[in-house]
Amino acid sequence: MNSRERILGRVRRALADAPAEDEPIARDYLREHGQRTVAETVELLAENLADYRAVVHRCTDEELPDVLTRLLAERGARSVLVPPGLPPHWLGAVDATRVPDRAVSTPHELDQVDSVVTGCAVAIAETGTIVLDGSPDQGRRRITLVPDHHICVVRVPGQVVSSVPQGLERLDPARPLTWISGPSATSDIELDRVEGVHGPRTLEVVLVGQGRTGAT
Amino acid sequence: MSGTYLGMPAFPEAAREAVGDTTLRGNLRHATHTIRAKRAKAVTEVSDWAELREAGKRIKDHTLRYLDRYLEQLEESVTAAGGIVHWAADAAEANEIVTRLVKATGETEVVKVKSMATQEIGLNEALEAEGIRAYETDLAELIVQLGKDRPSHILVPAIHRNRGEIRDIFAREMGEWGRPAPEGLTDTPAELAEAARLHLREKFLRAKVGISGANFMVAETGTLVVVESEGNGRMCLTLPETLISVVGIEKIVPTWRDLEVFLQTLPRSSTAERMNPYTSTWTGTTDSETADGPSTFHLVLLDNGRTDTLADEVGRQALRCIRCSACLNVCPVYERAGGHAYGSVYPGPIGAILSPQLRGTGSEIDASLPYASSLCGACYDVCPVAIDIPEVLVHLRERVVQGGEVTREGNKVVLRPAKGHAAERAAMRAARWAFTHPGALRTGQRAASRSRRFHPRTLPGPGRAWSGTRDLPPVPAEPFRDWWQRTRGGKDGDR
């Protein structure tokens, strides 16, 4: 008997006398917490992102290329990773060398790049989370991991949901997902949160929509 | 479980030393109190906590009830997504499988994401014996590995170390394992985190094999989920060419939607955050055109005592555990004794019910663990999947004292009553006799009341150990039943 059969046999014997557990699970928890207008949901996203030390900016569609150019210049980025499907005009005026997301790039090569700019799949307001799903405007998971500076563009309100249940509904489990809530952090020293370990130590989120202009 | 723990003394002996260590007591008190207040706040933020907790419990109970079905479904969906599934009945088999898989890659080093399952089976030691070096990449695991230490907390294995001790370990040991700590390293947490970043960077960038556990496995989609903070998980899950995940069979949830419960309750219960900084999910491997992450993915499904635990009607609820460690942080016993005294990678209240079930109650330490509790119930209150830890503790105490039928490695065996509890059994037998003989009880109670001035403060003989840590209850001047007869229950206004 192989271990597969052995384990499954043990499970079946262990449960031989167990009563049925087939009543549907009561999902009477909330789909979202509290009543908010669309604008308030976006506001909550911005607040929660900032609470976990992401730097939040807001601008309109037309302003976006200028904002990205400015943020990269302020960072002093000499090179920037660019996912294949990122709208080309977003980085049209950027001075930094554009590095494409390629399968053949080694981790060491990625480590030489200063910044990365991506879109996102969905953003969750209640938890201040952005989710990447590897779509063409986001690229492979590693390009948002190795560089120390990540700028993520979120279209508001279209890409924003209130809650974790609403976020999961929009996501495709077949795609590799990365949920990001603030820059990398640790609680390993005396159970107190410290930002900045292995992932990008600076996370900037640009909320793009018809809303107001300027950093919050 | 790991051989590191063989020959551990029983909990009371192990704890005695820890309780006398004032640095350790200070470190634990500081850390557990910090997180306690934060967790309470994070939980209050969601008004439907009770409903989420109940749903989490129900999802896990349902999964465990049909575990065979969900395991087969998971195997099918992982395989369909390009993963390779292995089954390991015990620690030795899991270690053998992983060692073989690593050797097949030709590599002699691996990077590891923090994983309870691989600690439980002692994977690092098994790999080391075969000439493969495993680098722990979680900050706390790194502190433990560099300090040649043992983990003492599920979430923060180096919780027993304060910043000054961590600084000393980094300054002394990092050079032995790779890039030395920066000159003049201080004990500020930010600098310590930076030192870990620099030290591990080169290991991540050159790693060809990553080893992980998983917080959840989704049966319907074949998706694995790793919840983390630092980004070391993302490094290990995406940069290597080969990924090997060792996961306990109880980590399954049936559907993608089920994650909506646990991704809300786990971060708030463990690090007291609305959401942890990084969560990674992956489903098998991606095809070569858009290849993202490892091109080879192995999933090792681990039993190692879980099916034996499943066979116990009362004890099986321990398998609901999502390893958040909230129960450790609120436990008055853990706060004082620390994690090492539990003699297992699973310390604290959950460890006290998990270790004796996974390993059996044969050893001194495992037989003593169900007693490592005051049964105050704080652990049950905070548990996000409502494991009634006190109930299981009492159940396991009964098993230790009375023996009885249990399942070990899939076979039913009958345990003999433990030797060490002869005095307890004798006392209980005497109590039963007294309570079924009212005349004798009355005579005894009156004698006790009259002689109360001469009662010792501690018990003699075998009772000494019991009264060494407890006050004997004072005997009243008059037995209750005499008082009742004399005053008709106080109705006469006479006291």
From TrEMBL, chain A:
Pfam families: LUD_dom. Residues 43-208 form the LUD domain. It comes from the Bacteria. This is Lactate utilization protein C. It comes from Streptomyces cahuitamycinicus.
From TrEMBL, chain B:
Keywords: 4Fe-4S, Electron transport, Iron, Iron-sulfur, Metal-binding, Repeat, Transport. InterPro entries: 4Fe4S_Fe-S-bd, 4Fe4S_Fe_S_CS, FTHF_cligase-like_sf, Helical_ferredxn, LUD_dom, LutB/LldF, LutB_C, NagB/RpiA_transferase-like. GO terms for molecular function: 4 iron, 4 sulfur cluster binding; metal ion binding. Residues 318-387 form the 4Fe-4S ferredoxin-type domain. One of its GO terms (biological process) is lactate metabolic process. Residues 479-495 have a biased composition (Basic and acidic residues). It holds the Pfam family LUD_dom. SUPFAM superfamilies: 4Fe-4S ferredoxins, NagB/RpiA/CoA transferase-like. Residues 71-302 form the LUD domain. Residues 441-495 are annotated as: Disordered. Residues 396-486 form the Lactate utilization protein B C-terminal domain. This is Iron-sulfur cluster-binding protein.
